[in-house]
Amino acid sequence: MDEAKKSTKGHGSTPSRRRAICSNCRRRKSKCDSRQPQCSTCIAHNSHCHYDKPPSLAYVRSLESKIEKLLQERSASSTGRSWQTNEDGEDTPRKSDSMTVVSPHEGHSLEDISDLSSPSYQNLEASHERKRDCDRWVSEISVDKHGSVCYHNPTSLFHEAPLNQSHTALNTGRSNSECNPSHEIQLAGQESSVQQNDKIKLSLVSNAAAQRRFEAMAVEKMAAVQNEVSSEVASELLKFHWCWIHPMFQFVYRPAFTRGMALSSPNQPETSYFSETLLKVLLAHCARFRVQDRPDQDSASTVMGALSHQAHLSLAMKIASPSSIPTIQALLQQSAREVAFGNSSQAWLYSGMAFRIAIDLGIHLPPERLRGYVKNLAAEDIEIRKRLFWGCYTWDKAISLYLGRMPAFTPAVESNDPVFMDDFTENDPWQPYYGSEDLQTRPFYSPQKGYMISCFTALCKLSMILSTIMLEIYGSSQEPRPDGDQQSSQSTKNLAFIRISSSIQKWWIDLPEHLRLNIKNLPDSSPPLHIVSLNLLYHTTSVLLHRPFIIGATEFESPAISRSYQICIASCASIHDLLELLTNTFGYVHTTYLNCYSTYIAATIAVLHFQLQEESVSVPTSEVPSEKLGLKFFLGVLQKSATTMPGLVRSVEIVKRHMQTIFDRRAKRYLESLFPDPLDGFVRNGIPEPTQPPSSLQQSNQYLPLQTGAGASNGSQIAGNYQQPYSGFNLEGLPAFPGQNFNVGADYPLEQEIMDPGFTAGFLGLDSHITLHHENSDWAYSGFLLGDDMR
């Protein structure tokens, strides 16, 4: 009897019932003890404990049958078939005269695919995507017991879902037009959103104009916050900042910063958008311009060193304080300064802390939609948060280019468009600032419209393309792949190449006319620096996209490779002309690190052009004058700009070392052709045969380029010292990201000279020496412009 019971327990008994989990523990993914009426976790969090009742099996089956019925009805309505009655009186489908063509897409007809791509279906899908996006970002909102808004995902132990009424207020009080397509109809009798935006814009512009008038008074109070320099010197340094640094990335919102500076005091040196730390970092960053523009450079250098020291100390103390927007702005500014001075590790760390604090404050979330939770968010607060979001986004892409590392700030940008309300600085006149007027006479420059807002908006959109290029073209996997996976990766990158090339073309076409510089018709005097920088970055982006397809090419007869080569050459010439215009107007002292990165990228193409001049290969003809591809000009810009930005020395040394290797190899081969080794000839009957190359190699093969790595060992020798042309034109010594450096600590130095480039790429994520191949040589070039059209 006992054995029967055991047998029944072992085989025929039902399994133990699974314990219930409350909704809060399921959302937090934490352990639930299933206590009633409240579990221990909910008691600890002081939250309402609720156990969701699972749906019955009958209910689930009824839903499945309804779904199946709806799918059948939809399929029947989209096949384009008519119905007829047969002899038995039953309805049967009758095919139309034009037979439906079936495509290989999951058994759907082409008419089904047409329905899926119809405008009505696309609008419906877009509305669903907007709703999903709303739900996605709302899930990142958390409210603590005091009612303060926090930003913890549902997986966090600290996440506390907002009350239902808050969520309802959010869905009814914010931009419902995005989550409900019929919202505009419902608000037909109310004030339109356009009128609301006009009111907000008028308010922000009026405030910006008022703060500009009070700026001089605010600067006078600066001595109450910092005493490192006098108010006159501090005012001079801030003018350098607003002129040369601020317009490109716009980390700081000037009206709020000015107002906070005026309201600050020794007892309260920090406001919502101003802090003593931020002020010191701004002054230290701009001091390098004052050093070069003054005759007493030694005294100015001493001031710069003191300001830099105070900025570092203040930042170190500020990190221990609660997160704030001025701290983010100070970290971003300090990161930019460290890059210019060649401190790549510090620059990367400062920017990383800025991005983390930005996420901690919810800067990555759509600010307009936060008003449903944060009732005290004014229009100015939303404007500041949006500008800071895009400042983080654009700087992340810039520093990733400098240092050759994967982008770190990559939040969703679809619901946070770069549209800014305060356009006061759009028509604000811009004029170069060289320091105090009593120093020396400066060249005349007629003030021009700054167009700062439209330029920054265009930079935000171009940064999205740059992010895609780094992630999908230069992105490198750390794990070795089989041959099949490598081919799949190549195909994926080719598809990304086609998509990105169209995006670049669309960006250039959509660029406002006042920002687009025609290379064939450049003005005598340079436009504002940030406008020239934007155009330089556009041509740099084109080179970065096409560079991998030409540095590994063995011939240029393929139309695809030829086109990529021509685009790189045309972009290099455009960068030359823009740099020449910029330096002739403003000099070399006021160039930015972003301008110099464009200079370096153009220099890599100039090196390639130099190498190909002595090759026995037919290169595509180009109408670009050879002087615009001269390496001397680009190196001159880098070397002269390095006086204020020591970080550029590394880029100069990379190009110099590569060119020295080329000349050494050519000189060695030329000497060997003049004085051949008597033991190299094949001896027959005691008489050495002449080391004469075949007729196909009787050209100037002594000027072959350098080949390093595996390619050098695989090159077969023909007729003594003469070798076949190398399979690549070797830009391995010229990485796309000159600041890329892998560091394992001061106690463990790496041998940079013998390090495999793939080693660094595998650890940092971006392959600075990647080579790709066009899959289809007859690929259509509808997405490209070239020559005059490109410019």
From TrEMBL:
Identify the InterPro entries for this entry: Transcr_Regulatory_Elem, XnlR_reg_dom, Zn2-C6_fun-type_DNA-bd_sf, Zn2Cys6_DnaBD
Subcellular localization, as worded in the UniProt entry: Nucleus
The molecular function terms in GO held by this entry are: DNA binding; DNA-binding transcription factor activity, RNA polymerase II-specific; zinc ion binding
The record's section on Pfam families has: Fungal_trans, Zn_clus
- What organism is recorded for this protein? Hyaloscypha bicolor E
Spell out the protein name for this chain.
Zn(2)-C6 fungal-type domain-containing protein
Stretches assigned to the Zn(2)-C6 fungal-type domain = 21-51
Compositional bias per record (Polar residues), positions renumbered to this chain: 74-86, 115-125
**An annotated GO BP:** DNA-templated transcription
Q: Which UniProt keywords apply?
A: DNA-binding, Metal-binding, Nucleus, Transcription, Transcription regulation, Zinc
Q: Which SUPFAM superfamilies match?
A: Zn2/Cys6 DNA-binding domain
Any one annotated GO CC term: nucleus
Annotated region (Disordered) at: 1-20, 71-129
Under CDD domains, the record lists:
fungal_TF_MHR, GAL4
- What domain of life does the native source organism fall in? Eukaryota
